[in-house]
Amino acid sequence: MNNQYANRYYIISGIFVLVVFVYLIRLFFMQIIDTSYKFSAENNSQRYVTLYPARGLIYDRHGKLIVSNQAAYDLMVNPQELRPFDTSTFCSILGITPDYVRLTIRKARNYSRYKSSPFLYQIPDSVYAAFQEQLYKFPGFYVQPRTLRHYERKIAAHFLGYVGEVDSSHIKNDPYYQMGDYIGMSGLEKAYEKELRGVKGVKIYLVDVHNRIKGSLANGRFDKPAIQGKNITSTIDADLQAYGEKLIKNFRGGIVAIEPSTGEILVLTSNPSYDPQMLIGRGRASNFVKLRDDPSNPLFNRALQSKNPPGSTFKLLNALVGLQTGAISPQSTFGCAMGYTAGPVHVGCHLHPTPLDLIGSIQYSCNAYYCNVFRRIIDNPKENDRFSAYQHWRELVMSFGLGKKIQTDLPHELGGNIPSLDYYNRIYRKSWNSITIISLSIGQGEIGITPLQLANMAATIANRGYYYIPHSVKLINGYDSIDNRFKQKQFTAFDSSYFEIIVEGMYRAVNGPGGGTALNGSVKGLDICGKTGTAQNPHGDDHSIFIAFAPRNNPKIAIAVYIENGGFGATIAVPIASLMIEKYLTDTITRPWYEEYLRTKTIIYPKN
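-> structure tokens emitted (608 positions)
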């Protein structure tokens, strides 16, 4: 073979090798790199159906079922498998419009041409039965069984929270979720989502060209069963929760009750509220819009997020600070001439015996007494100056868990406000003194405290100086699996010996003798200790507040009631708290007229 033929041989051979190499590269790309061919081949014969686990059940502290599950069916669509179909019949069976079909299929294709996505949620049983018979006529569609939440009682909406469909941020942050999945959006459902959701499984079916299931792939050898979510025993008492919601029905505000010895939340009520059943099923989206646009704001969790002045309940902390810093002693007495006056500043007070010692000041809630106490704290000669005295005051107060988040397990908690030293220095350019901020002495001014924090304050005093972080779960799958941080005592910065003096004042406020601001809350034999509050409100009538615990020794319940625009603390907050304490400790009510009073009492709230 001469050189000319040899060159041709090598050229032709090279071209042949190159063509084979190109084909090999193309095959590698099709089978390994480009998954669309894999999806197309597999989806012609197999269907992967996600098996959604039932969410864990939720019980109250006594084992009463609060939240269960019910069957539901979602219609799914896989754009890759779609073929022309009778849209008229399809829409007639499902009760939808052709426009809905076009828009939803377009949305599904934009999401993925090869992956399934939801087409229609929560098909009723009657529609599902009729559609299943005709399903073979609509290639690309299949039914996905799943479960929805069912609420055994119409209570505790803000405590329990609700479940909704995931959005792009959920999918981005956690690969477990896919389009169409559900996730806890608020409350306990959100806080314990990973425990409640379970683990998804998968069922692989063989289907024919008409999209009809012919059986399981390899007799189910490659299937994965779904694992049900863990059951949760919550801390709330369902009966007491329902009773609290009944008592607060006519008012705006919050009720929080805590077991002092554990920090377990017994009641968490925010009103206005809503029926939790409204946020499940096909009506969820429209109902959510109604609730969101309701001027009374029923979705707002006042128990965790409403930051209002604590009023005279805050005097208990100023009393403790005065004792701790040596500004006063239990025997310190101050007079009251219907209030306190210093130069142009006047803080009014109500008629009561005078002068008063510390215990009497709590019993009768004297404003003048606490103006004197607060000035002694800030002007304390033991401190370097008023700035260091204020900083010391703030640190002591915040040791109660105020001015910051308590770090409960429930989401969306707000931290309240105890104004910082920098705040006042910035506002007044350091030219302020104890008179300038005298409103802090009686729980007014810039102080903001949530009902949860008020209840925790009551529990801390009940425990004589420490608290457990309030939490919502008692058991997970029957075991004590809660975070260890909820079992640790959180000590305040106060000497425990001072608390008994405060408790005596709270006891006399409710039980006398000789009077007290909360005498209408007394129940024979229960030894209720409490403190009223009336918080000034620039947007309407004053707020009615009461914190309490009972019994005095070995307390079983601590409670805070905050009624917006409710007037004096004794007007609405005291009756509610007193009835709830009696209900919890005795399971009876001896004052039905108080229930009737609250049922017929109304407040005209300003329009938002």
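The chain has two domains: 46-234, 238-275+300-600.
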